[in-house]
């Protein structure tokens, strides 16, 4: 299952959230509250300063705070990280191993965002910011696979069936060979066919799950590699083709995650 392409991309959502964060910042609220209080009581304390001057001064100070927040790269990076965690909440994953791997992906994403924030403004910075958006899509694809693996590994019925059904099949095979009565043997063989089909379905689920786990491990390894490459990248790499290869690698990883998620869905539908 792919991520919803109709949703606004992360960059647009970050911009909206950053503006809202700046407008509602507590420091700006305190400045405005003080300005309003001084507009009421200031003329009595400071007759030379009219009420409107306090309001204008407070408004200017509030505007400066808003401007500083909007241009703070660290704040922008934190807002983006918070948005992703809201959409792909790790605590909803029941499997401890899968939850830790998703958290690790967020750690890589935070490190990459910090590296981009340290880059000098210019062509390189613009390209790296685009890479950050692609990495957010990457995390979205990772979430889809993690969620499916988590569903498989925490489904008590499936886990119990994985243990019991093969034993049932072996027992039925023995009974079918030793049962002397034809009608009973036919009934056993019918039950055996049903149980074998169930076992094949469970094995297909297990194989799809293993493929998903391998893809998750590969994704985390690739994220670490991308982080290392970004640290070493400079402006000349944009034209050398190195940056394009990096983008292609990320796109291929995202595609692989989506394909695994769709394959797991198909197996689940036929279980």
Show the helix and strand layout.
Elements (H helix, E strand, L loop, with lengths): L9 H14 L2 H20 L5 H20 L2 H15 L8 H23 L4 H31 L2 H23 L3 H51 L3 H5 L1 H28 L2
Helix pairs in contact: 1-3, 1-4, 2-3, 4-5, 5-6, 5-8, 6-8, 6-10, 7-8, 8-10
What does this structure look like?
The protein is mostly helical. The chain has 2 domains: 1-71, no CATH class; 74-269, no CATH class. It has 10 helices and no strands. Helix 4 (73-87) runs antiparallel to helix 5 (96-118) and helix 5 packs antiparallel against helix 6. The radius of gyration is 29 Å and the shape is elongated. The relative contact order is 0.10.
Helix count, DSSP H or I runs of 4 or more residues: 10
Percent of residues in helices comes to over 70%
| Helix and strand run | HHHHHHHHHH
User: Whole-number radius of gyration?
Assistant: 29 Å
Uncertain regions spanning at least 5 consecutive residues: 1-8
The geometry reads as: elongated
Report the structural category. mainly alpha
Tally of individual domains: 2
Distance between the termini: 17 Å
Strand content: under 5%
Work out the number of β strands: 0
Main sheet attributes: strand count, strand direction, barrel closure: none
Determine the mean pLDDT.
Answer: 81
């Amino acid at each position: 299952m792919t991520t919803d392409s109709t949703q606004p991309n992360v960059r647009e959502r970050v911009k909206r959230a950053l503006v809202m964060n700046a407008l509602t910042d507590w420091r700006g609220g305190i400045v405005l509250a003080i300005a309003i209080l001084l507009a009421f009581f200031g003329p009595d304390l400071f007759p030379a300063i009219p009420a409107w001057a306090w309001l204008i001064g407070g408004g200017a100070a509030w505007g400066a705070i808003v401007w500083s927040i909007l241009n703070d790269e660290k704040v922008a990076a934190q807002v983006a990280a918070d948005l992703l965690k809201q959409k792909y909440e790790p605590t909803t994953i029941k499997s401890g191993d899968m939850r830790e791997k998703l958290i690790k992906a967020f750690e890589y994403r935070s490190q990459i965002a910090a590296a981009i924030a340290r880059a000098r403004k210019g062509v390189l910075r613009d390209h790296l910011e685009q890479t950050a958006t692609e990495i957010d899509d990457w995390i979205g694809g990772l979430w889809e696979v993690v969620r499916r693996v988590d569903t498989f590994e925490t489904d008590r019925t499936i886990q119990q069936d994985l243990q019991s059904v093969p034993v049932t099949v072996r027992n039925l095979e023995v009974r079918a060979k030793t049962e002397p009565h034809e009608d009973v043997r036919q009934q056993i063989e019918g039950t055996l066919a049903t149980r074998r089909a169930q076992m094949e379905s469970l094995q297909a689920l297990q194989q799809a799950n293993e493929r998903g786990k391998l893809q998750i491990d590969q994704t985390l390894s690739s994220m670490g590699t991308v982080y290392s490459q970004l640290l070493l990248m400079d402006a000349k790499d944009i034209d050398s083709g190195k940056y394009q290869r990096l983008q292609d690698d990320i796109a291929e990883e995202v595609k692989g995650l989506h394909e695994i998620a769709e394959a797991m869905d198909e197996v689940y539908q036929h279980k």
